[in-house]
Amino acid sequence: MGTYDTLLLAFDMDKRVDEAESLWNMILHVHTRSISKQLFSRMISLYDHHDMQEKVIEVFADMEELRVRPDENTVKKIARAFQKLGQEDKQKLVLRRYLSKWKYIHFNGERVRVKRYDSDED
Questions:
Q1: Residue 20 lies in domain
Q2: Does residue 7 form part of some domain?
Q3: How many domains does the chain fold into?
Q4: Which residue of 20, 60, 66, 74 could cross-link 70, Cys pair, CB 3.0 to 4.6 Å?
């Protein structure tokens, strides 16, 4: 899987999205149940980098189907894709479902847990 990740990154850097998509489809069909969160995130980042919002949503749908929970950066990219497609209701749903209520910040040299601001509360 690490080799696939490196290869997808190389395709992204070379702007060879078609080849990356072919490799992704092969990975998805051959290794269906063993695709890591990192590999999903790499593909979402690739599509986000090339402004392909529909493809971001497709990869996210596969991710949900396989019950792989996205990390925080990936959630933000997925939400941005929904926003660019004009689907603010789905954007809010994704943010509410996958972003935790808490985040960690560093304050005076210590790691502190603080509640994440939610615009719907006020």
A1: 2-115
A2: yes
A3: 1
A4: 74
